[in-house]
What we know:
Blueprint: H1 10-26, E1 34-39, H2 46-57, H3 61-74, E2 76-82, H4 84-95, E3 111-116
Antiparallel strand pairs: 1-2, 1-3
Amino acid sequence: MKSKSAVADPVTSQATDVEEKTKQSSKPKRQPRYHVVLWDDDEHSYDYVIRMMRELFGHPVERGMKIALEVDTSGRSVCLTTTKEHAELKRDQIHAFGRDALIERCKGSMWATIEAETPP
């Protein structure tokens, strides 16, 4: 007499594995986020920061003013949180923005860095 044992059908088992992998891979993965951090110095005016935030980031004057005030009081301010590539572009644009014509001793652009966003 032949005994029947429970054996998984290999074709069905493979199909289930493929379906499961497809479900997992179809979920969009969120790219890591990075902050663009603007650093304080004594060679740039509030007007300069506000104009730079408007031109480079599209921030309204009020947001530019808030960033300028935070940079001045805290020494740094996050201008934008975005993907790494976009953050690098924005950091480079800050570095290339040029000197502040309102301050005679100003030699060049402000300094910015990028840093990984820490999960809550």
